[in-house]
What does this fold into?
Amino acid sequence: MTAVPASQTRHGSTTPLRAAGAMALPVAILAVLVLGILVSPSFLTLGNLLNVATSMSILGIVVVAMTFVLVSGGLADLSVPATVAMGAILALALQPALGTAAAFVLAVAAAGMAGVLNGVLIGYARINAIIATLATGTVILGIAQWAVGGVIVYGSDPASADLIKGRVAGIPVLVIIFLVVAVAGHLLLDRTVWGRHTRATGDSPPAATAAAVPVRRIKAGAFALTGLAGGLSGGLLGLTLQSARPMVGQGYEFDAITAVVVGGVSILGGQGSVPRAVGGLVFVQLLANVMTLAGIRTPVQGLVLGLLIIAAVALDILVRRRGGA
Amino acid sequence: MTALALEMRGISKTFPGVRALSGVDLLVKRGTVHAIVGENGAGKSTLMKILSGLYPPSAGEIRIDGGLATIASSADALRRGIAMVHQELNLAPDLTVAENVFLGRTPRRGPFVDRTALRQGARAILADLGTRLDPDARLGSLTISQRQLVEIAKAHAARPRIVVLDEPTSSLSEHKAQALFEVIARMKAAGTAILYISHRLREVLAIADEVTVLRDGALAGARSREGLTAAEMIRLMVGREVSELFPKRAATIGAPLLQVEGLADGGRVTGVSLEVRAGEIVGLTGLVGAGRSEVARAIVDLGPRAAGTIRVGGRSVSPRSPAEALAAGIAYVPEDRKGEGIVPTLTVRENVTLPMLAGLSRLGWVRSGAERRVARAETQRLGVSPADPEHRIGTLSGGNQQKVVIARWLAARPSVLILDEPTRGVDVGAKAEIHAIIGDLVAEGMGVLMISSEMPEVMAVSDRVVVMHEGRAAPALERGELDERRIMALATGEARI
It folds into this structure.
């Protein structure tokens, strides 16, 4: 048995491969920054960077919650587009009746309830997460569409858009909200009983069960969290756009999973952290921005992102095989 | 040509730190049933794994029909005419009987399955074995004993020289076993050599022509059936000196802490009653598959519980999760350390505090200072090495991992600790340390129920011993009346429970 200094073992870099994996993300982000500067003079401007930051913030809220799903061994939540749409549609549709703030809170709560439903199906009824969230996503979207009757909902309180799109001390409000969510998510996963139970559940469900961890509740909780996050994300999106279509959340699940996986959070559960997932988000969003500035067309961008996911998952499996316990 | 189908001579096998087999001879005549008996861990399965090509032997030679053979893999074993029928059936439940019999060797016509040849071939093999199974029946619709026959037919279809039957009757009633014996008789008449591994000594006497007894990885004796008795086999199986490896600590025995009555798991375990008192170590032993772990798992609700009452300190409890069992005062350390014990990527500290984390937190927030103190105190108490609890548990040795998994429960101060094979796979030094820890715990007034397959361990550590056989538990034997032969007689069903 090899003794390794505690500082290295804490988050698990006991092998050179793991150590390389931990360094890969910062290096990759740096490389994209350099690439951006070379590709376009408009890349390294405050305007462009703030734009990237703002556009990643709404997605980022979902990324933080999706990290919990992956770490708990829950695979992924594919109902995100539906909960985002639910948040956006309800936040706008209920404005005339309830007022902006109450409508927003109710929209987030409703999406959270949808997440709880997912959690019950996956954690307690033990339905495969991919199938369950695919199904509930379709159902939720259907209900949302049916409830509002029409196809597009418009906002009735333009002042709320100004507030959300505004800045505090030069920082966009959306970015501040995202940072608060990210810090809260990180503390939740790293410092609380729930977070520890989430990691234990994802790492070894039988061992966690035997160690008196409420595994079913933990699994369910991760999906309740993505429901809430989807609602929050959608509500903010609705207020920003002042309009909401049922397909407004399309692609959010893919983009969130991409960020989390590229950040090195294991799809196999047990390993990962919010900062890593956020690192993955920053990398992917910067890369997409650079590709756009370089005039690379959308289909090619999709190709690059798809390959990135495959590479990240393959690397994760390789590290687990070589360096895993 | 020799009359011997199989000769294994001077077979030894060493694993890092363990000598599993030393100089074992096994000589099997053509057209005979040759039984191999021995306690758990006597080396039976290692020997069979060498024969089936799963392990290479460290020393010794194997001859098949007189010719020197090196068996490199299980495919190689099959080519040489050695077929294994395992305890866990390797069949596809959604395929038919015929498809299962020819699994891997399905007859074809061009790219298609030759359905006629498949059905007729299977019918012929089944008839050859004297069974009347429908080749078109879906395997999943058959009973366990019928599936066993399909597994044997599958082995027989390859026309092997040697068939190994590993505990074929362990899941069968005596009546169902009769059908199996007829099948064995037919295979034997066809000239096949049958290696028969069983714990049921009466059965061995009924069907075996010769018996090889293994003990502690060595040959204890090879006998012909004539004149052999169950008592003689038991004597050969256990005839060893009880070593002083496991010193027993004196503790004051007090009031009953755990009382289990009429426990059943809805499967094989029925009517199990036992009691653990304060300051007492109760050994729960029996052969593999007797239902020991099932009893423990039913108590803490890791496994099904169909009937029975559980009382802790006189109060009736009915835990519906390991967490509830812990709250009621019962902690369980599972047998499968890697799969169910450790959470491999968490640190030693995180593993120790896992079940009690809520108690070390304020409003869900882990108080890291308190957590570190508890982790350090508990790992120090059990002498976990390395001492720094910030190591990933996956990097520790097996013995130290086990100490951490035990430490996990101590801070919660359970009144009863159930240990399932606590020293399996740990080296001798760590074993003694774990025994010392158990001694300390009962000295503090805890009650310990220790499941173990190792007879010397059970004999040395326990105050009382409960022996299980096929899901039933015998009344506890007091320390004064502990006797290896008596325990073995109960475990093998020679003495009635």
Observations:
- The mean pLDDT of chain B is 88.
- The radius of gyration of chain B is 25 Å.
- Chain B is about 35% helix and 25% strand.
